[in-house]
Amino acid sequence: MTYTSATGDLPELITVADVANYLNLTPQTVISFIKRGELVATKPPGMRGYRIPRQAFEDYLAAGYQAVQREVATSVEV
Hints:
Layout: H1 4-7, E1 13-15, H2 16-23, H3 27-35, E2 51-53, H4 54-77
Antiparallel strand pairs: 1-2
Helix pairs in contact: 2-3
């Protein structure tokens, strides 16, 4: 599954607030994902806060979707 169509209107670098709004989470939760290495982000010089490359966000969404698929497959086999 690809999220490009769903995230295609997002800019190349997404703010923490944008990701939080998209996922219906708090910005602090998104920052914790970044600090734990679950979501790739950068702090560009001269800008406040993190920026998440759109492709990294799409990869994050795809990885979560695949984890859910594996969980569902495992629970169906039992």
